[in-house]
Amino acid sequence: xxxxxxxxxxxxxxxxxxxxVGGGTVAARKVDALLTVGAAVDVVAPALxxxxxxxxxxxxxxxxxxEFAVTDVDGRVLVIAATGTRAVNAGVAAAAQxxxxxxxxxxxPALSGAIFPSIVRRGELTVAVSTGGAxxxxxxxxxxxxxxxxxxxxxxxxALAARWRADVQRRLAALGPRRRFWERVFEPRSPVVHACExxxxxxxxxxxxxxxxxxxxxxASPTTGSVVLVGAGPGDPSLLTLRxxxxxxxxxxxxYDRLVSSEVLELARRDARREDVGKLTGADHAAAQDTINAxxxxxxxxxxxxxxxxxxxxxxxxxGAEELAALxxxxxxxEIVPGITAALGCAAxxxxxxxxxxxAQQVTLATAHCAxxxxxxxWPLLAQxxxxxxxxxxxGHAALIEAHLRDGGRAPTTPVAIVExxxxxxxxxxxxxxxxxxxxxxREHVQAPALIIVGEVAAGEDxxxxxxxxxxxxxxxxxxxx
Length: 482
Ligand code: SAH
What we know:
The protein is an alpha/beta fold. Helices cover 37% and strands 18% of the residues. It has helices spanning 25-36, 50-57, 86-98, 136-149, 154-171, 175-186, 191-197, 201-216, 242-250, 262-266, 285-301, 320-329, 342-350, 371-375, 379-382, 398-407, 437-443, and strands spanning 17-21, 40-44, 62-64, 78-81, 102-105, 118-122, 125-129, 226-231, 253-256, 273-276, 305-310, 334-337, 362-367, 387-392, 415-420, 428-433, 450-454, 474-475. It has a six-stranded mixed sheet with strand order 13-14-17-15-16-18, with helices on both faces.
């Protein structure tokens, strides 16, 4: 005996007769689900809502404009009661059960002999979730979690497997080698999976042909490693993309920077090795970068799935290009996952719109990494009014930024917001003006990582603070008049 009361079952309904009782929106949803899988649908209802009326007019369903009759269930594979009236639904259920038909009563598991699961689809790959009617909301939440974990490209992968299935069966007749072959093909970041993820179906076909030729010749191809360059966002782990989350959960090794928050690292696969390469970047930047490049290549060569995790976005002041050049030179396959860059994360969490119709038609992301990099900026351009300028790595150079912008002609009253450790629980926003920028950084002991946002949009009264740490924010009251 078992406690489970429902058997999960996938039913082929193509051309099979199904009955839906009810003409409203709930009935329409069920009709849609049935039509999607090619069922022949009859609807019994005195009147139809607009959605169903359109389907009836187009000939996609057969409408019987009357009340339900017991004989309506005859010959049906599945009967669905969706009238919204419990007594009518109960009558439909009783008639269906008496005739030995499968019946589903919407939102009424007690009356249902069959229930609809929550589903996640990637082409022919289907995941169905059910709580046996006990907690449909929970089923939907679980479904959403699975949705986040399954790459959209799995549909393409499933279709590819279907196309190759007979070929593989013929050329790898023995069950063991065949199963191992498929396991290698479906492995996260295998060459076939990699090509599917990269939107390259022709490449996936080629990778599949190569893998099968090798397996048929009795050579197990060495597992190929790969590197995914992932943007970890500015700190709040919920700002990761779904793709970043998947890469973290498939990683064998993660090389991360100082800026990556521990909460983000916690989302990685439990047994993934974590290497802090942030501490390398001390005095000698170039040497540290060479060490990281060499490490990435060596790990991937060993067949490992490597994630190179960087704060914010890897292509915004992240030296992503240098690491990719090293991988490309060694023909190591790689992927790039964008992240929310600090400017966007901090602006959102401090409620500062970076552009605004009347006051800011341009945004510039600038680096204030060193005095030399500051010398190369186009200060007259940055000093123009109605132009938001976001300085990365600027805390140590606030005085220079202030002087350059003022020399370029930017008004001393231009509002400035300094966002320290944006999007994290320690976020702090210091508001000031250009005239007192350097003074405020010093007085408030602003620490890296922090962004300096200069522009009309940073005026306190034009902002939309909402993030909880606002209580700790400091406003430079003496600076407004400066
Ligand atoms: N690739 C990263 C930037 C790396 S440069 C990105 O796209 O965000 C490092 C600088 O980014 C820091 O000096 C700081 O200016 C900024 N920064 C990164 N994270 C930040 C955060 N949570 N709050 C404020 N500034 C941040």
